Amino acid sequence: MKEEIKAYNNVLELIGNTPLIKLNKVTENIEGNFYAKVEAFNPGHSTKDRIALYIIEEAERQGILSPGDTIIETTSGNTGFSIAMVSIIKGYNCILAVSSKSSKDKIDMLRSMGAKVYVCPAHVSADDVAKRLHEETKGSVYINQYFNQLNIDAHYQTTGPEIWEQTNGKITHLVACSGTGGTISGAAKFLKEKNPNIRILGVDAFGSVLKKYHETKEFDSNEIYPYRIEGLGKNLIPTATDFDSIDKFIKVTDEESAHATREIAKKEGLFVGYTSGAVLQAIKQYAEEGEFNKDSNVIAIFPDHGSRYMSKVFSDDWMNEQGFFDSVNAEEAQKIEFIK
């Protein structure tokens, strides 16, 4: 009798159950035990696979989506890729409104997945474009990840339980970026229900309003200015962020986060994205504030894969153009050879 072929029915069955990987060299001078929840192991190479599948399947359960319909979303790249991937398998059209801040790599990847992509310049709101496209497109659904409770629910149902199980309940801290806020909020909600003493530490960007809003419950437009990190921070207050479940926020710079991203690759062999570097930088800053001790078990969510940043943080030319080789890491600048 022939053995049955063991295979997944489609790529969507690979979403979730991403590994925890111990961080060794990048945290060797910090008290505690540090582990990365590496979301690049999802088939779409980011944590956004989770919400794309969850929200679309919930829309199907509610009878909102039918084969041949169109899914529309605002995205910095990762959510769009995940939605495009799910749309291919489930038979939907996909339209995406993307900020011009997104890397060319990400935009090209979206188009390669069959999505129709509208790139919005800095002065044009991608959210407004997505809403208009939704109004103009018959049989369409607007995911609206920044204001969709299902964004939180997806991580409450998947990311939080996975972390709890993988750590056997021994997690003491969760460190995660906040953009839409779904990842940190959903995981935090589940983990706090299991153990309210777990510290939930958010990561925000300089130029974003989230940290100050968390501390004061006031939206301060004076906090807003341009920054380079994609998928981190926001110039509005997403309802997909449960600020009450987050204990503290810290802000990180573009430059230090960029160098931390490269450090992860060079010291840990993990090729992860810009926001992962932001998380590592935040861990260093939280450590300086005395957040951790030798018994701390810290889980850091690394949201996506480094391949989406080849024209940015992993490009010496881009790093040099931003002036990132000027002060923090002069020795890196010396490695750049300019051919005339």
Give a description of the structure.
With 340 residues, this protein is of the alpha/beta class. Helices cover 37% and strands 16% of the residues. It has twelve helices and ten strands. The protein has helices spanning 48-61, 78-90, 104-112, 126-136, 149-157, 159-166, 182-194, 210-216, 254-268, 274-288, 316-321, 330-334, and strands at residues 20-22, 33-38, 70-75, 93-99, 116-120, 140-142, 173-177, 199-205, 248-252, 297-302. The strands form two sheets. Strands 1-2-10-7-8-9 form a six-stranded mixed sheet, with helices on both faces. A four-stranded parallel sheet has the order 5-4-3-6, with helices on both faces. Helix 1 (48-61) packs across helix 2 (78-90). It starts with 19 loop residues before the first strand and ends in a 6-residue tail after the last helix. The mean pLDDT is 93.
Relative strand content: 15-25%
Could you list the spans in which at least 5 consecutive residues all have pLDDT below 50? none
Figure out the total of helices. Answer: 12
Taking the sheet with the most strands, its summary is: 6 strands, mixed
Structural class: alpha/beta
Concise synopsis of the structure shown:
With 340 residues, this protein is an alpha/beta fold.
Helix-strand blueprint:
Layout: E1 20-22, E2 33-38, H1 48-61, E3 70-75, H2 78-90, E4 93-99, H3 104-112, E5 116-120, H4 126-136, E6 140-142, H5 149-157, H6 159-166, E7 173-177, H7 182-194, E8 199-205, H8 210-216, E9 248-252, H9 254-268, H10 274-288, E10 297-302, H11 316-321, H12 330-334
Parallel strand pairs: 2-10, 3-4, 3-6, 4-5, 7-8, 7-10, 8-9
Antiparallel strand pairs: 1-2
Helix pairs in contact: 1-2, 1-5, 5-7, 6-7, 9-10
